[in-house]
Design goal:
312 residues; alpha/beta; 45% helix; 14 helices; Rossmann fold
Length: 312
Amino acid sequence: MPEQSEVHLPDGVRLHVEASGPADAEVTAILLHGWTLDGRSWHRQRAALDEALGSAVRVVAYDARGHGRSSCMPLRTATLAQLGDDLAAVVDAVAPTGRVVLIGHSMGGMTIMEYAHRHAAHFTERVAGLAFVSTTAEGHTHTVYGLSPRIARLIRLAETTGAGVLARCGSWRPPRALLRALRPSIRWLLFGDRCDPADIRLVTSAVARASLRSIGGFRASIGAQHRLETLADLAHLPAAALVGDRDRLTPPPCAESIAAALPATELTVCPGAGHMLMMERPDEVNAALLGVLREVLGRPARDGRSAPALGA
């Protein structure tokens, strides 16, 4: 069973953290989930990394503020900038020494970019590898929901208006009965050709745990972020970017622009897959994450010590 703990942030928010592997591992992989989800969305990756790398890597997943088992927060802090600050605090708390590989899905990937932008020296000192899963560095630039641009603009207007209303609803959670009724819509929006019913149930459960303030509050920040210039400064790091060609929220052009900013990045496009790649295509995602981690483990640490043998 993973170890459970909390990171207490300066504004009183508590983040729920789960970790496996030795606390003194030279490399720590930190998994960041997407908007309205929680750390459970990475369950297949956590198991695969533990099995493949053993004690060489510590694997950490945490619930962002207002999500999962983390506490709610003031509306003014429902921003990607705050999530970037939170990630810096998590790195210090869960991996005070050693190298860190950051792995982000959707909003989690955007959080990594914000951390790099706002805490450049801290990021440079600690981060040794990156993986971006179904995410973007360009806000809603490419988001058309798989529909015509005109219809997409109307949907975005309705979504933005609704998000403003939800943001003012505080720590209330969505009614589970409503979410069950919305499962067909969730399946259409988030998944591609194939979908395990258990994954729909997990996603619905995660949305049920997210506060309405989080569901609505982060929308404006997510839509407005542009961090391609920040990514260009990280081109020296081992990295991977993955996307499904049926992703309605962060379609292939999002991953392509990330790969263009990071020329050494391994870009993987998964045919028939939607936005929830870690669930829909776990083998491809696991292979990409292991590729980055093994490259990091194979490099000497900054202090000149030899890297541990893989699987040790």
